[in-house]
Every structure is written in C-alpha cells, then in structure tokens.
Amino acid sequence: MRPRWRESFLPSVFLLGCIFPDLIRGPLFIIIKLTPLELRDYFSLQILHSPIPLLIQSWLVAFLFEAGLRKKVFINLLGGIALHLV
Q1: DSSP annotation of 50
Q2: Residue 20 neighbours by CB distance under 10 Å
Q3: Which of 37, 54, 63, 75 is buried most, with the most CB atoms less than 10 Å from its CB?
C-alpha cells in the first residue's frame, strides 16, 4: 500500500524545480558577460531568484502540461524551487 502523498509526487518535476531558478537566470548571466552591460544590470536579474517571480514562473510552466497534471506539476515544481531557495 502506497502512502497517499506518493500519488501526487513527480520526482522528475521536483528535481527540475531544484535547478529551475538557475536554469532561468543562468543563460541571462552568460548573455550579460558577452555584452558590455553595467554592473547594475547584473543585479537587476536577482529578482528572477526571488519567491514571488518564481511562483509565477512555475505557474506558467505548469500550463505546458496536460490539464490533469497541471496541479501536480505546479506543486512539485514549487516544492523543488522551495528546496533550492532554502
């Protein structure tokens, strides 16, 4: 008999959530290093590593999945993001 929480646990999406903030911010850092931008532009990207924007981003990513999976994907992605931020 499986525990009830295991029915909604998606390990691959949870692990994606653990690296999701870096996947969003990383390519932008590379672009900044390749272009002559000022240091203040670099610090403006820190908002992408904040809880509220990440909540919105995970909500938007959940829409890439089927309607029946969206809630599970959102919760698992958000759980991985929370673990990353802690």
Answers
A1: S
A2: 20
A3: 54
Domain-embedded: residue 76: yes
The pLDDT tens digits for 31-68 are: 777 777 666 666 777 777 889 999 999 999 999 999 99
* Identity of the residue numbered 86: V
pLDDT at site 37: 65
Distance CA 38, CA 52 (A): 25
The position carrying tokens 């590379």 is: 30
Alpha carbon distances (Å) from 85 to 7, 32, 52, 56: 25, 23, 12, 15
Residue numbers of the domain that contains 35:
8-85
